[in-house]
Task: structure prediction
Amino acid sequence: DFDDAITVEKLAGGYKLYVHIADVSHYVRENSVIDKEAFKRGTSVYFPNMVIPMLPKEISNGICSLSEGENRLVLSVIMELDANCNVKSSQIVEGVIKSKHRMTYTEVQNILAGDELLIEKYNDVYNDILCYQEIRNKLREKRKAQGEIRFNLPEPFILENSQGEIISIENRVQDESHEIIECLMVLTNEVVAKTFFDLALPFVYRVHEKPDEQKVAQISELLKNMGVANALKTDGDKPECRNVRSA
Result:
């Protein structure tokens, strides 16, 4: 299922970024039979070689899938960014899109690496891909300055044979193409959350409490024992991620 898509326009003083997600609510109405069944399931269940979908595949993989060259209903977050990728304005709208290309992470990564054959194949969106790269780089610098702590933990990828037996477990590659999508989706989530907060509407948030001082001291001591000089330092009595820094 392809449930999201991105579009960009390069402006004189920044960018206009569109992030689209399939509008499932148009087809699955609240309290309908499908909605009640989906509520009981809670989520799709993913296995290495198959998926048990929360919704019928005719919806998730059919009319709601943002297939290449097909008109599809979406909810879109439209953001105007300045040259430093600060959000100047935003709106959330219903719309219809026709996806130009269904691209893979590998293809995008190879394009960024200069693969001439792929650049020619996707020539109509090549400049857009470079634009996404610019935005990603600027967003990463902004988040780093805000105190973002990145954990480069490997994600396992399970390989099976035709009998469904596991033959190997490898690390899934998380390269720049993955980070482009991650950065754009995080930015979109922030814009949506701020929109609902400003409207004082009920919303589901993921809340991360401030770290406990004692636990910060314990991990600092652990890092010292592992040879990390001076480990971590914090400013003030209530440490926040922007206050934690390697010495």
Q: What stands out?
A: The first helix runs from residue 33 to 41. The beta strands are 4-11, 14-22, 45-47, 50-52, 71-82, 87-98, 155-160, 166-172, 232-233, 245-246.
